[in-house]
Amino acid sequence: MKGSCLCGAVVFEAEAPAGGLHIGLCACRSCRKAHAAPFNAYAAVPRENFRWLRGKDSVQTYASSPGKNRHFCSICGSQLVAEHPGEPDLLLRVALLDEDPGTRPVERIFCSQEVPWLASEGDIKRFDEWPSGRT
Amino acid sequence: MKGSCLCGAVVYEAEAPGLLIGHCSCRTCRKAHAAPFTATARVPRDKFRWLAGADKLRAFESSPGKNRHFCSVCGSHLIAERPAEPHVILRVATLDEDPGVKPVVHIWRSHEMPWLAYEGDIKHFDEWPPGR
Fold it and tell me: N or C terminus: fewer CB in 10 A for chain B?
């Protein structure tokens, strides 16, 4: 399956490991800050199952902890993948996929680092698009 | 209250009593943040200022007149704005202090992807799952 960043400069292809993508949601502080979002959706894929199809020269890297590289698009700021150079897997940012991998998130990790002002449950009004009256 | 990007190069201050926080699942936010949704809140321009790293910011115009500003060192998105509007749209997940309010609205749920479901039968762990 393919994935791409917001601006479309970077496109990648990833093949799920045997058994399908094991998707998790991570609320750790680093993911919260890197993604500027309540949580990130990740899935490990073997390095040999991943390749850049386009825009590799636009990929920029930030080491968020020693040996943990987070790669993002230098044009639009989309986080693309994360990896530890010595490890056999890459961590896909599943929200960038342009195709349904067929599996669903099974775990939420680092719930201890969730912050109250990003709660996604509880008394929240939900709208398909804009709230009524907004365009 | 203050906020900052992942690497700490960019720091801002936003004054906003009565912040109205909303989650957005639109396709553009999904792609920009590489996340199921982002958390946003409007702050009047005169209540927002960069404290450090304004020279590290990079902007991407995701639709005509809508600029999304992110840190060029680590990629964290910090605000979005339309030049003609009197407010900026804060990326609330970058706050370093609890604003004391919780999200009240969640928009563009029609754009949610089934493989990014965040409710339902999902195991919760404080940190890593056992054995990881």
Answer: C
pTM of the model: 0.95
B 62-91 residues with CB below 8 A of A? 62, 68, 70-78, 91
* CATH number of the domain where residue A18 is located: 2.170.150.70
The total of structural domains in chain A comes to 1
Kindly state whether residue B44 falls inside one of the protein's structural domains. Answer: yes
B128 to chain A, closest Cα gap in Å: 6
Within a domain: residue A17?
yes
Is B109 inside any structural domain?
yes
**Burial (CB count <10 Å: 0-12, 13-18, 19+), residue B33:** buried
Query: Which residues in chain A are contacts of B36 at CB distance < 8 A?
Result: 25, 37, 39, 41, 95
A42 interfaces chain B, CB cutoff of 8 Å:
no
Residue B73 lies in a domain: yes
Q: Are B105 and B22 in contact, with CB atoms under 8 Å apart?
A: yes
State yes or no: ipTM above 0.90: yes
Please give chain A's pLDDT, 135 residues, in tens.
999 999 999 999 999 999 999 999 999 999 999 999 999 999 999 999 999 999 999 999 999 999 999 999 999 999 999 999 999 999 999 999 999 999 999 999 999 999 999 999 888 899 999 887 665
